[in-house]
Specification:
Elements lengths: L4 H38 L4 H9 L3 H16 L12 H38 L4 H28 L4
Helix pairs in contact: 1-2, 1-3, 1-4, 2-4, 2-5, 3-4, 3-5, 4-5
Amino acid sequence: MELQWGLILAFAAAAIAVILPGMGSSKAVGACGETASGVSTENPEVNSKLLVLQLLPATQGIYGFLISVIIMIKTGILSGNLANVSLLQGIELVIAALPIAVVGYFSALKQGQVASAGMLMTGKRPEMSGKGITMTVMVETYAVLSLLVSFLAVNAINVG
């Protein structure tokens, strides 16, 4: 059986799409958990408000997972009925995965930093938790845009 470089690149695209945003999200959610633990020690009443802020940086990992699954469905990786993916199509899939991979990774880290700052603000002034959430969600905009670009690019590739 000959190596199908296009299919190998499709596997790589699916991996890139999920690994980088997943790494960013897990690091950010972990850092937010550390901040939430400290803030909750000082002000236990705000714990439920902190959970919302901790969850927000997890979305980039979810977005990467979504693009990865779409790639695996499109190429037949999930069904076991592998498509004939040309080398060019494999390269296209890798390039299509890059927006969510790269922007997802970095926006998760930055969103975690903003969420941690929002947690500190909420600990001192619980009535400002909504502002902390709003600031954190603003970073999400770029993750959503990169998700959209990767989604459109992956779906524009005709795999045979």
